[in-house]
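Try it yourself: sequence plus 9D3, in.
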Amino acid sequence: MRIDVVTIFPGLFGPFLETSLVGKARAAGLVEIEAWDLRDFTSDRHRSVDDEPYGGGGGMVMTAPPWLAAMDRIGADRSVHRILLSPQGDRLDDARVRKLAEVGDLVLMCGRYEGIDERVRELVVDEELSIGDYVLNGGEVAAMVVIEAVCRQVPGVVGLADSVENESFRNGLLDYPHYTRPPVVGGLSVPEVLRSGDHKAISEWRRRMALRATRAKRPDLLDEG
Ligand code: 9D3
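Structure, out:
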């Protein structure tokens, strides 16, 4: 799995790519991720990436040439799947994440300002994704969401394949409640069954609690299943 990110803020990705599961996956050579600076693909003295919109109106629009130059270079030697993160995109969900993990070579394009010149979309974008109905300042945080979710699906990244398999959304249910030491916190005890050593009873209790949580908070997940 290789992921290239193109952004005017490559610095945002530094610690993110080095920390936790994503950092370990890279260190283990399971995923290769690189953040490119869009301004490195400009050809003017000011390295500008935006201009005023044709037709007027407020705000600025990202110009096409740096994007086209970046897409010419990234993936020139191989076949890549180019994803534009944008509020107009299809909503990201677990099914889409699993599909992306199977693609292999992804390029994540992070927009800023009011948006990108429409011709970039027409010429080089394969897929457009949003992470939800709220306004972000640009695609960078959304790209991190895609990276983290996709990396988890790469075989070997999550130590036990089993834990991905049993994960929330995979079985269509929300998670059951978790407890660890100490046994009493603020007067609240750990449910007795979890300390019983009865693995069958524990597993039944967890299933029951997962169903209860799903019914209460996300009944839509039960309808679909
Ligand atoms: C306030 C500006 N909006 C006018 C209707 C349009 C707009 C343009 C650019 C709103 C947000 C953005 C920047 N957002 C993204 O690039 C973005 C995003 C998001 O805002 N929400 C959820 N997913 C994504 S993916 C990329």
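One thing you can check immediately is this: The radius of gyration is 22 Å.
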